[in-house]
Fold each of these.
Amino acid sequence: MRGFRYIIVEPERGKLWPLNLFRPSFELVYGFKRVLEWYKTMLGDPAGFSLPKRLSPLQGYIYPVAKEADVKLASNVRPALLGEVLDTIKDGEAAYEDGQFVVAKGDGLIKKEVHGFLIKGPWELQKSLLGNAPDRSSVMPELPPNVSIDEKKGPVIIDRDVLVDDFVKIEGPTIISSGSRVSSFTRISGSYIGIRCRVGGEVERSIIDGYSNKPHYGFLGDSYVGMYVNIGAGATTSNLKNTYGTVRVNVDGFQLDTGEAKVGAFIGDYSRISINTSIMAGRIIGPASYVSGNVDSDVPPFMFYGAPIDLERFIEQAERFLKRRGLSLSSSVKEVIALAYKELNATPGMA
């Protein structure tokens, strides 16, 4: 602990929108662990959190409120720069990057502009897997003899209660979290698999967050998949343009050049990807959306195959999906979903 009290401030939208529609940016995965875990490791536990209105049902229930703190810190600072960003300002100053809050000390009345501290967009979550590998391998379950573990590029961690079927190849650096299952004839390379996921086909340099399903054939590359997502058989993400040029991604209403030739898709929580869907490089599928066919443009949240979905219908279907996993929607999460739905429908262009 650095000897000060700090509050983590979640933006209304920010550069990770809409992946942070239903949960704060600091709960997204960055470099094999959640952003909040990086903050705690480097700065100690936060004194509290400041969340936007749509996430207010989680305030106090999960994330405590702190009335006093020495520092306010944005929830989407690049973890490697947490120490450096605190040194950029003095007491009474606040730093902003492209108009977005970064950090403040004291009353923060004196504003200054900084650059390069915030996570630029969702592709940086996936790219963070490079250079942030775990220190050593740990393969806890007994694996079939025809499973291949390749550690030439980094360690492989497989939690104790993971089930790995026959004829699977896992290349490091990779983490497969508790309760997940890997189907036969699967290849996983340089990826993070969250708790209780089902994974099949080919997964390369991607993050699949907890409770999501991709159990069948199909390619997922250089992508971020949120929680409670289902990806049907044969669905594939493109991660490379035919021109071999860099991929552009829509970030908070602006098309940004990622500077990367390999960028896949970014799929929000509770989304459904139908069988044989093709998703073009750099596309964002908002939370609570259903897609099929050829996805060559971004999909806003709460869409049902091209048309807005009714809130009650979505909640009914989400509960049906969760029930299959022995889970349920808590009242606070239902409130978050309802507030997000109301916010998006009340503000034109907000999606």
Amino acid sequence: MRRFRNLALVAWRNVRLAPRRSLAAIVGMGSSLTLVLLQLGFLNAVRVTATNLFDLLEFDIVLTAPSYDTMYDTGFVPRDRLTLAESVSTVGSSSPLWLTFGQWRCPPYPLVPGTAVQPKAGSRLERARDRLSGRYAPRPMKRRQLLVIGFDSERDPFRRPLRESVETTLFRLRLDSKVLLNTRSHPDFGWDLWPSFTDWELERSAVDVVGGFDMPRGFGADGAIVATRGTFLRHCPWPTADVVSLGLLRVKPGTEEATIATLREVLPSDVLVLSREEFCERERDHWVTQTSTGQIFAIGVIVATIVAAVVVYQVMSNDVRNRLPEFATLKAMGHGDSAPAVIVVVQSLILSLASYAPAVLFAWLLYWLTEALATIPMVLTSRNLILALALSLSVGLVVSLLTARKLRAADPAELF
């Protein structure tokens, strides 16, 4: 133990007495670790945003079509299946939900050529974010697809804060062609120009934006609106009023498993019955493992780890090369192959730990910038922090052992 402590002190002095070399190593290793954290953040954002709409819906059980893929491609559920489900005694209520994409008329900016809308009041950081994101950059009128969410105004399926937004404007939403626009939609969709702009269109038919609601943007849709059933069916291409996208069921407390079993017996095979947890987990799994978006970021984590390994290997190889006479002296003094190997391993771990804190700090800054500019929820989770630290230490350990192999094969006489 004493021998290991002495060798660890040698490794610490190697780091401390070569500040420039150690700083370069910490910068290189920290940069690669920041890349790992950034990719982990994107992968976590894919998982979080996969259920951003469902997190705002109140349901215990969901009825879906067997062909259901994602909330952007749901298939169709016969509406009378919800009526049949309500016949089960433990089902408290049901709410139909309609989901589809529609062409939205995005207003130009500025509305009047040669003028500009003054940016909304906010902190200096918020104004800087708006400038960087191009929120107030000139753009022409165009049409883009957004997610259209239809609901039955007599059976509100929403949770807070979306429920509050709907309830405060429900008397207007029940009128023809009235919608709510997601305040976090891409600037192209024009929330910043409401209520100055009034010529809104959905599928080339005039609609009126009567307010906004707050829902995080996902990777599948840059914008979203909420409309009642009548407005949805009037403006969106939909096969028939007799089918819906999802059937949302609320059940009596403690009866979820029994209700699911009963519904699977009662309902025909043209619908699937899933619990909230099963449904959301399938959605997350699809986005993380089956879409190109999730796969790209998963591969990004692997590539970032490989880059980190290459950087650490180069750093440690250069350090070993510069210290060959010192390691040769240790071997000539009878310490054998283990002493230089221990020094290299401990030195690598010290540099890995020293690079971790600045890497986390820089990653946090990149997370903030990404969330501010793209409105994608980037969260530096404890799970990702622990995983990044484990990857950093593991890579440092493996690479230092590979580097130390050069010393085992070296002859002290040749090193001088």
